[in-house]
Amino acid sequence: MTGPRRAIFLDRDGTLVHRRHYPSRPEHLRLYEGIGPELRRLQAAGFRLVVVTNQSGIARGYFTEEDLHRMHEHLAASLDRSGVRLDAIYYCPHHPDGAIPELARRCDCRKPAPGMLWRAVHDLGVDPARSWLVGDVLDDVEAGRRAGCRTVLVDLATESPPVTARRRPDFVARDTPHALRIISAVEGLAAAPELDYRPPGWPAASLSGAGGDR
């Protein structure tokens, strides 16, 4: 009998694919270069690859869930061409200010709430304490930490140093391939890259791996 599985939880926009204002068509999702080999290495080591993404554009009426499914089919196919298979995609369609009445509400799945991660833990038999979350905003980090994961923030120069412990990432990376290499290094799968990278102005205490509380 095998034990609980490990997972890499991945934000979508700004982490797997280039940021765009409310992408609504498959061709709007463009993978960042260099992530294929890094994801393949982690998948080969037994990590489940799980996307967890806020998609308030559905609640706002910018696109439909059917549109989103087509985009995610395109995303999965793009990764498959790189030899990477996604194990699951979870999305939150809600927003308190949404234009679609049944979706205009607070929920437990929209990050920074950890609901999507907990669903994956239940559905896939994942151990969050052995898992990681990679995202480009501190709401991602908070969701990961609330679920009990280690976290890596991808620096897109949009986030100020966190002021609360639960929003402190364990590591900050220059880009997503760097984030995935950090995970591989910590897990003993690859040589260590630069592990103490910080955005300009971020003190050491802004990283939980450098003295912050877990």
TrEMBL record:
**Could you tell me the keywords of this UniProt record?**
Carbohydrate metabolism, Cytoplasm, Hydrolase, Metal-binding
Q: Which GO terms describe its biological process?
A: carbohydrate metabolic process
InterPro entries, A to Z: HAD-like_sf (IPR036412), HAD-SF_hydro_IIIA (IPR006549), HAD_sf (IPR023214), Heptose_bisP_phosphatase (IPR004446), Histidinol-phos (IPR006543)
Annotated Gene Ontology MF terms?
metal ion binding; phosphatase activity
Presence of keyword Metal-binding: yes
Name its cellular compartments.
Cytoplasm
- Entry keyword annotation includes Hydrolase: yes
GO CC annotation, single: cytoplasm
Quote any Pfam family the record assigns. Hydrolase_like
Q: Which family does it belong to?
A: Belongs to the GmhB family.
Protein's recorded name: D,D-heptose 1,7-bisphosphate phosphatase
Q: Which organism is it from?
A: Sphaerobacter thermophilus (strain ATCC 49802 / DSM 20745 / KCCM 41009 / NCIMB 13125 / S 6022)
